[in-house]
Amino acid sequence: MAVKSFDPATGRVELVGALAEPPKQGERVVVDFGSRLQSGRKHYMHHCMHCHGVTGDGEGPTAEYLNPRPRDYRLGIFKFTSTPNKEPPTREDLHRTIYEGIPGTYMPSFALLEPEVVDAIAEYVRWLSMRGVLEKELVEELGVNGLKFSLADIEAEAESLEIVHRAAVKRWEDGGRKGPAPEPPTSREAIRRQRLEEFQEFQNEELAGLVDDTGDDIARDWTQAELLATAILPDEPHTPSTPESRARGRLLYLRNDCQNCHGLTGEGNGPLTREFSENTETKEQNPTPGLFDVWGQPVQPRNLHSGIYRGGRRPLDVYRRIHAGISGTPMPTFGSKLSDAQIWDLVNYVMSIPYEDMATGAEPPATVADDGEAEPAEQAETAALTTPGAADR
Ligand code: HEC
Ligand code: HEC
Asked: Which ligand places an atom closest to the C-alpha of 87?
């Protein structure tokens, strides 16, 4: 039996070949996506492993020399997606990253590969990432459940029992040794045995369920990301890039403190690039001044004069970066704070910055900023959201 087609929007799977028995209502069926993953794995090993590592930890042999570092997929965090901040990417987002590469970084374009090969590799990247997140969440769950097995934990528990015991003995002696002497504390060996028993019980009764539930939750997140309804699509079409719009954008840039990171004139050298920041997880001060990402690497705010947009250079792409921020980096989300029209003004301003360097009075070329010249893909997406019912497709 094999999968003929799969529609992520409806979750409908079309199968070819026969099952021994048709599945009953409500029954869980495991479908073998294996061959696609195997093909994805083969191509991943050939094209991606030397940067992104065998397990997707971003530690391939070449990685050390690169800045920014290749993505560690295991946190499930991707920067350049059409989905809201920290949501998993869609298959299309991954396809696009692989096909186009990430301009201004060492992530190359694989436009020469067959689209099916790119899809298979994207599938394998999703798998690596889901597996990484599952492992991380299980480790956290096990910690939360109070299952402490390390020697240090057992040592600490035995020690605190001994302190309590010594205090009880002292009270008993001071009180003239009335009644029975306090019981000796549980031995380290007994604590170890007890923990092992608890763990075995947990393993037999709860672990499988925990793995299943956690896995289901993660799979649901990734499936939901595929639904068009979650994609960031502005309700208002791209405002034409007029001098007025760009001036409003400049004001918004200053009012929303973009300059703290990107600098007053957009060189990417704002004051936060010189101050010490703290690690978002451990709250410890980072080793060097400036901003850091969740992977623990220093990260520069973009120099907006470069005209290089890592997440794509369509106005819609830049809109998404400002709306959702860039996951895993300090670039914040502005979608909840600013209206669509305001974000478009910011897009128009930001995309005009590279042209400020030209002779004064130079206008940004229409192809970049003018809505009429927008690329077909963007027009289709913008049209999709103004057409009633399009979101239900
Ligand atoms: C020469 C090294 C190199 C190779 C080879 C490479 N990558 Fe990357 N990749 C990178 C770097 C560097 C980044 C991070 C760029 C950034 O953070 O802006 C990256 C980022 C990514 C991302 C994250 C995109 C996001 O939105 O966060 C994906 C997905 C990815 N690569 C997939 C692949 C796949 C699949 C292959 C093989 C077909 C591949 N890469 C080959 C260097 C490489
Ligand atoms: C706290 C610091 C910080 C603030 C505030 C900030 N940014 Fe950023 N921004 C970053 C960082 C860091 C990056 C680079 C992230 C990466 O690609 O790794 C970035 C990247 C960008 C990019 C590049 C997108 C691309 O595809 O390459 C744009 C455009 C941008 N920011 C615009 C803005 C605007 C507009 C504002 C204010 C409304 C703003 N930023 C506020 C830190 C910040």
From this structure: 1
Tokens 């978002």 — which residue?
Answer: 280
- Could you tell me the two tokens for 265? 């004139």
Whole-angstrom distance, CA of residue 19 vs CA of residue 117: 28
pLDDT single digits (tens) 91-122 = 999 999 999 999 999 999 999 999 999 999 99
Task: State pLDDT tens for residues 147-187.
Answer: 556 677 788 888 899 999 999 999 999 999 988 889 888 88
State the residue for tokens 């936060």.
Answer: 272
302 lines ligand 2 (CB under 6 A): yes
- pLDDT tens-digit series, residues 35-81: 888 999 999 999 999 999 999 999 999 998 899 999 999 999 999 99
Asked whether 83 and 225 are in contact (CB, 8 A), the reply is yes
Question: Are 295 and 58 within 8 A, CB to CB?
Answer: yes
Q: Which of 60, 59, 62, 56 is nearest to 40 (CA)?
A: 56
Distance, CA 72 to ligand 1 centroid (Å)? 9
Q: What residues are in contact with ligand 1 under a 6 Å CB criterion?
A: 47-48, 51-52, 62, 66, 68, 70-71, 78-81, 94, 97-98, 102, 105-108, 110, 121, 125, 310
Give me the amino acid identity at 300: Q
Nearest Cα to Cα of residue 66 among 101, 107, 33 = 107
326 lines ligand 2 (CB under 6 A): yes
> Quick one: which ligand is closest to 312's CA?
2
First-to-last alpha carbon distance for the chain, in angstroms, is 28
